[in-house]
Amino acid sequence: xxVSIFVVADKSAMYVILSVEFLYMAVxxxxxxxxxxxxxxxxxxxxxxxxxxxxxxxxxxKQIKGDMVSINTEGDRTLFFDFLPMNLGKINGxxxxxxxxxxxxxxxxxxxxKLVLKGVDGIVFVADSLDVRREKNMLALKxxxxxxxxxxxxxxxxxxxxxxxxxxxxxxxxPLMSCEKMEKDLNRQLKAPSFAASAFSGQGxxxxxxxxxxLTLKHLHKQFNWADK
Amino acid sequence: MNKNIKGILKQxxxxxxxxxxKEAEQQLKKIETFIQTNERIKNKEKLLKAITHKIRLLNxxxxxxxxxxxxxxxxxxxxxxxxxxxxxxxxxxxxxTDKKAAQLEGATxxxxxxxxxxxxxxFDKLLSSEEHSVVSxxxxxxxxxxxxxxxSAVTRFFKWKSESFFTSEQxxxxxSFTENLFEEKKLDKxxxxxxxxxxxxxxxxxxxxxEYEEFIDISSIGxxxxxxxxxxxxxxxxxxxxxxxxxxxxxxxxxxQVIDKLKVGVKLDNVQYYSPVAIFKxxxxxxxxxxxxxxxxxxxYSLDIKVExx
Lengths: 229, 310
Ligand SMILES: Nc1nc2c(ncn2[C@@H]2O[C@H](COP(=O)(O)OP(=O)(O)OP(=O)(O)O)[C@@H](O)[C@H]2O)c(=O)[nH]1
Ligand SMILES: [Mg+2]
Fold this sequence. Notes:
The complex is a heterodimer of chains A (229) and B (310).
Chain A: E1 3-9, E2 14-20, E3 34-42, H1 49-59, E4 69-72, E5 78-91, E6 94-102, H2 110-117, E7 122-128, H3 134-149, E8 160-165, H4 179-186, E9 194-196, H5 205-228
Parallel strand pairs in A: 3-6, 3-7, 7-8, 8-9
Antiparallel strand pairs in A: 1-2, 4-5, 5-6
Chain B: H1 2-17, H2 21-37, H3 44-67, H4 76-85, H5 96-112, H6 116-126, H7 133-146, H8 150-163, H9 168-184, H10 197-204, E1 220-223, E2 235-243, E3 246-251, H11 256-261, E4 267-274, E5 279-291, E6 301-309
Antiparallel strand pairs in B: 1-2, 1-4, 2-3, 3-6, 4-5, 5-6
The structure holds guanosine-5'-triphosphate and magnesium ion.
The site of guanosine-5'-triphosphate (GTP) has 22 residues of chain A, from α1.
């Protein structure tokens, strides 16, 4: 059975092109003919998770089916989570709904991050390109791995993509790590798809999400398929 | 060199604007040291004054964030979202038991997010469901105490006692939980002893030591069973929830040995408390142990450990 799902994104729209040989569409055919999946943006404090979601909210109006909910502290740091519901439309009569979440990145909110991670299907790990945040990136990835483990999930098996954010600051003369260096730091073993981005300008934001949704939907399909047999 | 300083200053300003306050401070300190140690700088005093001023402002900002209360109550709308988003026991089947389990999960999520007012409303609704009545009752008491409504907690407690709403076994369970909680929060346990206590509550309010210390956030713990040489293997467990100096951990139903060892009342002399900032050695006492009745962790045990010293 060959399944290929492409999620294509451009500046103004994100749409799903799907080619599936018919038989197995039943696997998506849950009670309400609807797939609901949860994607969580994870990463160190201030790396730009919320900014990613804000950009998605602005740029993909068509696919957004509700308001973005942000629960912040006064200083705009995420306290509990941000939440953004998306609807990618119908695939063979099956509605694809996506819930985007961000976690609070500050170290002390570990237990909240764990709560938000509950039931996660796919992860966008946002790394901060700022030189001074090198160690924080690595600690956050470790924290993610531990929190996943507490739900019996393996970071090597779950759909995950990495984003190297704040690339726009390079031309401002602010010391950034090169993407290669961050690949070595964070992605040597993981070998996840990775993207340079600037959540600030939106560059790379769509690509990152698109890649993550791709992996996530494929993974879900495989799971159901496998369970069916 | 001047150009260099400008570059560092620019970095400091950017970090500050992104809320990276420690990083900003480091850059400013670099500049401060540079000016202090460099003889040939013009306007040295003036520059130093300007930098010191910037550092002071930054420190004020840091303090502001540190002070910021964590106990923010959110709006009913947000509470509804939390409830809906954090229930996995989806009522796919439309089954009443699943629905109730989902409601309990939602209420617990509110509690964990510190939304005590909202959680209270939900647990109140669940009181009538046979399966979840005891855990709801306990959490109602917990919410009242978190909200500093000791009065309401005691009143409610006696209401249950007088109403024969719970069986005597259940009442004992709720009583001991309540007593532990009172002890944990350094409240006067005598209030729970007699009905007469109720009338005196208001007079007695003054003697309550309401302020319990802010406790360090513990993310996981390591326990060594030192006396037991044969199975002296250390175990490490993640903390799932923490209120003050009581931490909750989940133990998988597979870990029979650990479950058996950690009986309520057992004192643990050799515990390592891992916090995001450091590891502390200390002791603790197992204060509660409950088998989880529903959800993905069904069959596992939830254990409360009271941190005694650290
Ligand atoms: N220049 C630049 N700034 C960015 C970029 N992404 C985020 N920022 C800034 O970085 C700061 C933090 O961004 P947030 O999106 O709030 O970060 P976060 O990861 O949600 O932070 P927490 O909620 O505390 O975990 C803000 O001042 C953003 O404007 C980027 O791509 N380029
Ligand atoms: Mg945020």
